[in-house]
Amino acid sequence: MLLSLAWRNLWRQRTRTVLSLVSIAFTCMLLVFMLSMQLGSYRAMKTNTLNVLDGFAQVQPEGYADDPDMTRFIPDAQALAARLERVDGISAATPRASAFVILANGETSYGAAVIGVDPAREGKVTRLPSMLSAGRYLAPADADAVVLGDVLARNLGVAPGDRVTLLGSAADRTVAADSLRVVGLFHSGIVQIDRQFAQMPLARFRDTFAMPGGANVIALSGPTLARVNRALPEVRAIARAKGLVAADWTVLQPALRDAITLDASTSSAFYASLVVVVVFIILNTLYMSVLERTREFGVLLAVGMRPAPIGRMMWIELILMAALGSAIGILLGSAVTLFLEGYGIPLGRNLGGLMAEFGLPSRLYPHLSPISALAGPLVLIAAVSIGGVVPYLRILRLEPIAAMGAA
Amino acid sequence: MQFGMHIDRTDGRAQRRTAGADRRGFCALLAAGAFAAVALPPLTALAAPEATALLQRAYDNWRSKSSKTTTRMTIHRPTWERTLTMKGYSRGMRDALVRFVAPPRDAGNATLKLGNRTWVFNPKLNQVVKLPASLLGQSWMGSDFSYNDLSRADDVLRNYTHRIIATGSAGGHKSYTIEAMPKAGAPVVWGKQVVKVRDDGILLGVTYYDQDMKPVREMTTDRIRTLGGRPYPAVLTMKNLAEPGKWTRLETREAQFDIPLPDYLFTRSNLSNPRD
Question: Can you give the residue range of the structural domain that contains B51?
Fold first, then answer.
């Protein structure tokens, strides 16, 4: 009965209710859209950064993330990779080894990270093999081949067909040295990768660096980052059985995680103030209406209604309004988001170039998810509900005679 | 290996290694083990020896005109240890050639330093590679010394100001502890060096401090013996203070000083086609 009373009361003050609904709906729409934009760009950043080189997750020897020493290795890497590929949510797994080396061409030399990869599997895990600007990627039959970032190749003054000299430290602490033929150059658009990275066949890498076998890490990929994250508990269990650990994206890209955390916390402060402002506007409206309806409540008290049910009725009016407004806002916000999700928001050339540094495409695509659609409105409804305690307490204090005599 | 922003981590890693490996200041030591304690009048004869003069004379003593040495290098890590043998030649303060002769898997690797330029020779590839300046802070042959330690021997003299902070006695000689602070704007990696020398020009130890004035590594003279006819810091140990259990010991077995050395020794062609 209170519910239907509350509903009817809402529509007695049609204009005021509609205005309140509009402000709630607009706020919710904004929250849904902005949160979707934000989560969409986070997703793009993570995906586009990880799938160039890292993979969505990795299985690593314990301590490798802090001290990537070549002598920490996974002995039976091929078999383990095959086992990991059978995990639901993991579409591909590839073993890798890496070392910090000096690459030289005559008198010119640069420091670089060289990664030993399985040419047949690497392309299933990362996009780098498809980002070639010259020549070709490594092939399974390659022996002494290497692919370089295009900036590294330019610095060294080499092109496909030329040879580069590699010097580093082998797993047995001796000098690792090799002469490799450049077969291709990659251009990822991420300057650090193009300037500092090279890939060579894993088998050759093991010979050159005297690795007793295996690989340093196994890089994993899946349909989406979220799917891989959901598969992590199982991956972790498999890794633990071998004395290894699973590194998720936050371990692989701690700087990106920090950037996202910082951005999320500053924008949360913005969302919080938005919600606070709207909540106060609504509570103000409602409190006004309680004052205005003091005589009406006095009559209700006089005919025998207890103050508590009257207060509850008011409270329900408030929650109904917030829920209705939020529902409209969610619908509108989702509609706008879904439309732009297909179309994307162009960033313009300058910003687009900056975004490329972070592995972002030049268009931003918002991403509607249960979290982005519901988080903002739910917080708003909760805040309004809690704020309703103020008019409720006022109603509890009403005396019938005084209330009926109020202006 | 991480990428994109993770490169920051790669750099951080390199930084860490650098902290452990970037050493400057006393070189010929390593390069050739060529620290000659030339017989000069003991400084005790001076009433109040001046810090810079003390260091200068000590370095002059070590810097014999030339040297030829045989040195054993022991690299110690918590889980392993290995020993290499090398032959070294030095000419003046800034030129040095080091060639490893044992064990077999390391034999033939060589490093040539001419002024600020450094080349390495690898026998497997039969190739010479010039090292980029940015990598000279890296570990040399996996040891606690860096390529920088092979050069800039007089760095502590040229780029630092000196002050005696303590005196004592060692082996029947007077010893001086000298604090070396970087001159303003000098291209140095250390926040401070504390050098201990004996009045007859023997280096007793160097402690290297980072920019926060925390000691990060320490080299000590463990044994002084007569080599090439002069007292010489024959056993030196470089300790990494940040990572206990990591040290590298240089033990000079044979040494000849101020001998005539042919110029061809210090050439790139001799580096790749040894005639020595």
Answer: 4-272
Q: Which residue has the higher pLDDT, A186 or B203?
A: A186
Residue A223 has phi, psi (to 5 degrees) of -60, -45
pLDDT on residue A342: 78
Q: Cα–Cα distance between B212 and B227 in angstroms, integer?
A: 38
Instruction: Provide the residue type at A210 as one letter.
Output: A
B135 CB neighbours in chain A (<8 A) are 102, 109, 111
CB contact under 8 A, B129 and A68: no
Q: How many Å lie between the alpha carbon of B133 and the closest alpha carbon of chain A?
A: 9
Alpha-carbon gap, residue A310 to A352, rounded angstroms? 57
Tokens 């706020």, residue located? A27
First to last CA, chain B: 42
Q: Contact, B134 vs B15, CB < 8 A? A: no
**CATH number, domain with residue B133:** 2.50.20.10
Q: How confident is the model at residue A281, as a pLDDT?
A: 84
DSSP sequence for A299-321:
HHHHTT--HHHHHHHHHHHHHHH
Q: How far apart are CA A374 and CA A35, in angstroms?
A: 10
Chain A residues with beta carbon closer than 8 angstroms to that of B139: 169
pLDDT at A335 over 70: yes
End-to-end CA distance of chain A: give it in Å, rounded: 28
User: Pick from B5, B75, B135: which is nearest to A255 by CB?
Assistant: B5
Nearest-CA distance B265 → chain A (Å) = 20
* CB-based burial label for B169 (10 Å; 0-12, 13-18, 19+): exposed
For residue B7, what is the nearest residue in chain A, using CA coordinates?
A192
User: Which two tokens mark B152?
Assistant: 């800039």
Quick: pLDDT tens for A100-129. Answer: 999 999 889 999 999 999 999 999 999 999
Please report the beta strands in B137-270, taking only residues with DSSP state E, as ranges in sequence order.
160-170, 173-182, 192-198, 203-209, 215-227, 230-240, 247-257
Number of domains in chain B: 1
Distance (Å) of CA A274 to CA A30, A222, A369, A376: 10, 37, 21, 10
DSSP, res B131: P
Length reported for chain B: 276
* Residue whose C-alpha is closest to residue B122's, from A202, A170, A97, A69: A170
Q: Residues B72-119: pLDDT tens digits?
A: 999 999 888 999 999 999 888 778 899 999 899 899 999 999 888 899
Cβ of B2 and A54 within 8 Å? yes
| Coil, strand or helix at B226 | strand
Using an 8 Å CB-CB cutoff, list chain B residues near A49. 3-5
Pairwise CB contact (< 8 Å): B10 & A113:
yes
Q: Is B131 on the interface with A (CB under 8 A)?
A: yes
Nearest to A35 by CA among A256, A275, A255: A275
Neighbours of A88 (CB within 10 A): 9
Helix (H, G, I), strand (E, B) or coil at B143: coil
H or E stretch covering A402? helix A400-405
